[in-house]
Amino acid sequence: MITRKSFNTALDLLIKDDHPHNIAGFVSLDYRLSPYPSHPTSPSSPDDNSRNVQHPEHLNDVLGALSFLGSNAGEEVGLKNGGSTHLPDTSSITAGRYVLCGHSCGATLAMQATAILSAGHGSIRSPVALSGMEGIYDIAALVATHTHPAYREFVTAAFGQNEKTWVTASQLVGKLEKWRGNVLLVQSSSDELVDMEQTESLIEKLVVQGFTRTSSTSTGNQGKQVSKMVIDCLHDEVWEKGTELAKAIRVVTDKAWISPAMH
User: How does pLDDT run across 87-125, given as a tens digit for each residue?
Assistant: First the structure.
């Protein structure tokens, strides 16, 4: 199962990199999951509160985590086990000087969180850039394209049976007309679970909202740019190998747009 610790492989590659790529630090977030009782190796239990939530609770967890990090920067905070830990200086999150990255459902949540924060909701600013890797951006289209019952099963577990909720959640993904940052969308040509059309349809949405489509290798950095990077690996190999994830983080941080007012 993918958790915050799955980031460690890519993290090791980034830490060993000779070039800083404008990166001051990394934070990997967990959020509660929806029920998955038929999971082949780790089925969820009805008694497990961390695996029995529906939309928008996953999104609320992400927003809550960002707010927590921003408001408790550099402070001693309590842990559930009764202990405590000292947080590093994460005040850049409050100031909006951070990049939000997500894979698969995490990419969905990164887009949704940015839409909410850019509309002025929440105690922190929206990120300066986004990276969505093999993301799900149109939930109804995903279910319609893939006839295997597992797709409908996991979507209804996360969003319920009402397909209007699927549409509303998908609309929030691309609602970035007020946001001025850059977007890097990464999709594998060998992804066996999520199709390239998910990425292409989101790019079209963003272009309508004033984004300029550019190459992922372009050097311009004026804000409101969207680019696509095509990789070649299976869906979960992004985490397992870490190479493409590290590459995407390097690209998006190099292209992260900081407005003059935020310097």
Answer: 888 888 988 999 999 999 999 999 999 999 999 988 899
Distance CA 101, CA 115 (A): 14
Structural domain containing residue 22: 4-262
Q: CA 231, CA 188: separation in Å to the nearest integer? A: 4
Average pLDDT value for residue range 141-147: 96
* CATH number of the domain that residue 59 is part of: 3.40.50.1820
Average model confidence (pLDDT) across the chain: 90
- Beta pairing partners, 212: 225
pLDDT tens by residue, 185-231: 999 999 999 999 999 999 999 999 999 999 877 766 678 999 999 99
Please tell me the predicted confidence (pLDDT) of residue 200: 97
State yes or no: pLDDT of 258 exceeds 50: yes
Q: What percentage of the chain exceeds 90 in pLDDT? A: 67
Q: Please compute Rg for the chain using Cα positions.
A: 18
Tokens 């002025």 belong to residue: 120
Nearest to 237 by CA among 184, 191, 186, 189: 191
How far apart, in whole angstroms, are the C-alpha atoms of residue 103 and residue 45? 24
DSSP one-letter code for 123: S
The dihedrals phi and psi of 61, each to the nearest 5 degrees, come to -65, -40
99-103 sheet: strands from edge to edge: 99-103, 129-133, 182-188, 225-231, 212-215
In contact, 176 and 114? CB cutoff 8 Å: yes
Please state, in angstroms and as integers, the Cα–Cα distance from residue 177 to each residue in 114, 166, 174, 246, following that order.
11, 21, 8, 28
Q: Which amino acid is at 260?
A: P
Neighbouring CB atoms inside 10 A of 148's CB total: 9
User: How many Cβ atoms sit within 10 Å of the Cβ of residue 22?
Assistant: 15
Total domains, the chain: 1
